[in-house]
Specification:
Helix content is about 35%, strand content about 20%. The protein is of the alpha/beta class. The protein is elongated, with a radius of gyration of 20 Å.
Length: about 270
């Protein structure tokens, strides 16, 4: 079992993770109740682990389920019959409870203008931990962003590692300058995120994508970019635009949860 101090350290880190704990066993099993491991979504196919619940096929199955829990932040109980389901010779059964160590998905928000202030408030109320990045000290204040989880004082390349990218992350680019927006998109478009959006017009969207492709950014990553950001509800004011973006983020988040609840053979493609 991992020490509580190590679990706290992982939970506070930039990479999302899930705690997998064996809660009950029946018959012969590789580990007994109380055994645990952490799966960290580090960008690799199966994630990185600390600790073990027995290795082999059972651990592989739990790691797959843990990555789904990380993406949805919804806990789940995985019950595994080692012989019937996995072909293991043990013959026993294990129940493993999986819970995300980061319960509220992070929103990485580039920009601290009027829209960002409205978006931070709305997104926090909707269940997101908002991380606001902007180099303008006069705008990046706790008074303007009382609901923010963290304030980051720049968005240069070296600052990105301070931000919680990952399969559960939501990213919105909304700075005061088109060139800055372009530079940020180019820096983050290949980083892991559930949702990546740029505030702007259809024309801006076209130019941004063309410039990314011209600089060699993989087309599949460029296609992930949502621009204009938000659902088309005819929004005009910063508050209305914030509502449209949060609505789109909630739609993506809940769609991922619905997909994770489907049987493995009946997965539908989720937008985003």
């Amino acid at each position: 079992m991992l020490a509580p101090s190590r679990l706290a350290e992982i939970a506070a880190g930039a990479e999302p993770a899930a705690l997998c704990t064996v809660v009950s066993t029946e018959g012969s099993t590789p580990r007994k109740a109380g055994a645990s491991m952490v799966v960290v979504a580090d960008g690799s196919e199966h994630g990185r682990i600390e600790g073990t619940i027995g290795g082999g096929a059972v651990e592989h199955e739990v790691r797959r389920a843990a990555l789904e829990v990380i993406a949805t932040t919804r806990p789940r109980l995985v019950e595994i019959a080692l012989t019937a389901q996995l072909g293991m010779c043990c013959g026993g059964k294990m129940s493993v409870f999986i819970e995300a160590l980061r319960m509220r998905p992070p929103l990485v928000l580039f920009g601290a203008g009027h829209l960002a202030a409205a978006l931070c408030k709305a997104a926090s109320a909707a269940g997101f931990d908002v991380h606001v990045a902007d180099p303008r000290d006069e705008l990046l204040t706790h008074e303007r962003f009382p609901d923010a989880h963290a304030l980051i004082d720049d968005y240069e390349a070296e600052d990105l590692d301070r931000l919680p990218f990952g399969p559960d992350a939501f990213v919105v680019v909304a700075t005061h300058d088109h060139q800055r927006d372009q530079a940020i998109v180019e820096r983050v478009v290949e980083r892991p995120a559930r949702y990546l959006a740029l505030v702007g017009s259809q024309r801006k969207a076209l130019l941004t994508r063309e410039r990314c492709l011209a600089k060699g950014v993989d087309a599949a990553h460029v296609e992930r970019l949502r621009c204009p950001a938000g659902l088309d509800i005819g929004a005009e004011t910063p508050e209305e635009i914030a509502v449209s973006i949060v609505a789109e983020m909630v739609h993506v988040r809940r769609a991922v949860e619905a997909q994770a609840r489907r049987p493995r053979g009946a997965r539908a493609k989720v937008a985003g």
